[in-house]
């Protein structure tokens, strides 16, 4: 067949195909659509043709079975041999050497806690490692009120607050906390740790933005993780860096849909012992239109003239802070945690706070203890708080004389975090991190042998590197002489142990 004949055949076939196609109902509309679409948008026509051919190819493709065995068959003896050789991975990794030492040497208290405690070895020591700074654990009035509540209400509600777990005791305690802080409403959680880690994801979701201090405690970090929000960190307590981060976010989000935005920080930092600059944070929050979540776990009942926290200490209206989170189990001597704010903030958590909705409510006797503790502090008018501050000051004066130790915490913080001085670590060639922890553990054990119970802060995952340190709290149940003697003993023991370290 010549080329001329081939063109005639194709042309005739096309005419004949068009004739038959026009006999099909609606074919004229289809042909007109294809012609106009090709003229207006040939790329679209090409895409539609590709998709049509792909669909035809997919429908005409041969079928195959997904149940086809495509693995090597083993004999029974080979299967048994593999099973015998298999070793499962441990659920928990083996403890490190230092962790094992802690477990083996960890002292055990026998009986009630207080300024003096009895250990399982029969020795009685002064307790400088407890959050019982007001010595309310030894208060007979609080004991009687807790026992009376236990007899009337039982051990626990045995149900979440929204499912028959709420008792009149809980409502009263929430009202007492709100009135004490001077805010409209309060919600109470059954555990202090999961309070902040539930509050954050109750308001901030995926796509929202949270700006947080790098030194935020572990509970806050878990809350940030659970929220799945976009997290931006700023350098610890650096207000200039905070504003720089806020400015950067403002530029990045200028043409994007509006999202919820939060700043998260602490009143007194658990890991560093210092204090946030709340007035500056408030100013930046207002300037860049953010909401503030303030964790006052360690500043509630310790800062301010009457213990109302960092807002009282730095003269900031607590009603201007969107959410204030605190603990009833640290210095309050009870249990659980709370979040205060506007009525809308609180009521939203009753249906969206995971730890509130799905956890059993706080036992009634602990709610009563928290309420009565706050009442005692109000009646005493800050007298006992002043006593704790004076005893802490006496202890700090002894540590400040040390050549090897320094206190990280601000003077207003009753939780004294003590570390080795930087020049001592460098001059003595002490390994940073684990080497410092070993020396501090030796100091803790030597101090214990001399009749003083203190503790070393254990490492937890965090954004900032772990800083080895000792934790000490002076109680109102201690005397001035005991507080001074504790500081002197710690200073002397540290000097003796560091002197053994070869350069």
Would you kindly provide a brief summary of this structure?
The chain is an alpha/beta fold and 503 residues long.
Backbone CA Rg: 34 Å
Low-confidence residue ranges: none
Question: Strand arrangement, largest sheet?
Answer: 4-10-9-8-7-5-6
Give the rounded overall mean pLDDT: 90
Oligomer description? single chain
The shape, in one word, is elongated
Number of helical regions? 20
Total number of beta strands:
15
Biggest beta sheet summary: 7 strands, mixed
Distance between the termini: 101 Å
Structural class based on helices, strands and sheet pairing: alpha/beta
In percent, how much strand structure appears in the residues? 5-15%
What fraction, in percent, of the residue positions are helical?
A: 40-55%
Features:
20 helices, elongated, 4-stranded mixed β-sheet, alpha/beta, 7-stranded mixed β-sheet, 503 residues
Structural overview:
By secondary structure, the protein is of the alpha/beta class. It contains 20 helices and 15 strands. The protein is elongated and about 120 Å long. The strands form three sheets. Strands 4-10-9-8-7-5-6 form a seven-stranded mixed beta sheet, sandwiched between helices.
């Amino acid at each position: 067949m010549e080329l001329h004949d081939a063109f005639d055949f194709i042309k005739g076939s096309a005419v004949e195909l068009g004739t038959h196609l026009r006999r099909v109902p609606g074919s004229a509309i289809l042909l007109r659509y294809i012609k106009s679409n090709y003229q207006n948008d040939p790329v679209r026509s090409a895409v539609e043709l590709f998709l049509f051919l792909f669909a035809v190819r997919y429908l005409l493709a041969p079928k195959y079975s997904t149940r086809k065995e495509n693995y090597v068959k083993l004999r029974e003896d080979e299967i048994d041999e593999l099973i015998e050789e298999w070793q499962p991975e441990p659920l928990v990794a083996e403890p490190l050497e230092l962790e094992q030492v802690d477990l083996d040497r960890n002292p055990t208290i026998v009986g009630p806690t207080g300024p003096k405690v009895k250990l399982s070895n029969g020795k009685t020591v002064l307790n400088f490692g407890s959050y019982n700074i007001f010595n309310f654990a030894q208060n007979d009035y609080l004991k009687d009120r807790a026992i009376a509540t236990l007899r009337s209400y039982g051990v626990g509600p045995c149900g979440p607050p929204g499912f028959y777990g709420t008792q009149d005791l809980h409502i009263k305690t929430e009202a007492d906390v709100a009135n004490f802080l001077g805010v409209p409403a309060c919600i109470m959680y059954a555990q202090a740790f999961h309070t902040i880690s539930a509050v954050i994801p109750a308001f901030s979701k995926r796509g929202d933005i949270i700006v947080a201090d790098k030194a935020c405690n572990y509970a806050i970090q878990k809350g940030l993780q659970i929220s799945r929000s976009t997290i931006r960190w700023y350098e610890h307590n650096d207000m200039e860096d905070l504003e720089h981060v806020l400015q950067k976010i403002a530029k990045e989000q200028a043409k994007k849909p509006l999202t919820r935005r939060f700043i998260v920080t602490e009143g007194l930092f658990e890991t560093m012992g210092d204090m946030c600059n709340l007035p500056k944070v408030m100013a930046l929050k207002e300037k860049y239109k953010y909401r503030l979540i303030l964790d006052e776990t360690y500043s509630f009942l310790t800062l301010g003239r009457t213990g109302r926290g960092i807002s009282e200490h730095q003269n900031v209206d607590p009603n201007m802070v969107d959410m204030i989170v605190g603990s009833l189990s640290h210095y309050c001597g009870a249990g659980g945690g709370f979040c205060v704010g506007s009525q809308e903030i609180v009521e939203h958590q009753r249906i969206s706070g995971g730890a509130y909705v799905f956890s059993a409510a706080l036992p009634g006797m602990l709610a009563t203890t928290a309420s009565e503790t706050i009442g005692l502090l109000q009646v005493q008018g800050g007298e006992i708080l002043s006593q704790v501050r004076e005893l802490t000051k006496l202890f700090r004066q002894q540590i400040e004389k040390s050549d090897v130790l320094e206190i990280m915490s601000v003077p207003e913080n009753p939780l004294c975090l003590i570390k080795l001085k930087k020049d001592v670590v460098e001059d003595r060639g002490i390994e940073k991190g684990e080497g410092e922890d070993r020396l501090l553990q030796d100091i803790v054990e030597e101090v214990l042998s001399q009749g003083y119970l203190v503790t070393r802060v254990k490492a937890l995952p965090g954004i900032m590197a772990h800083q080895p340190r000792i934790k000490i709290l002076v109680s109102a149940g201690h005397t001035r002489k005991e507080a001074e003697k504790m500081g002197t003993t710690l200073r002397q023991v540290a000097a003796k142990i560091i002197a053994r370290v070869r350069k």
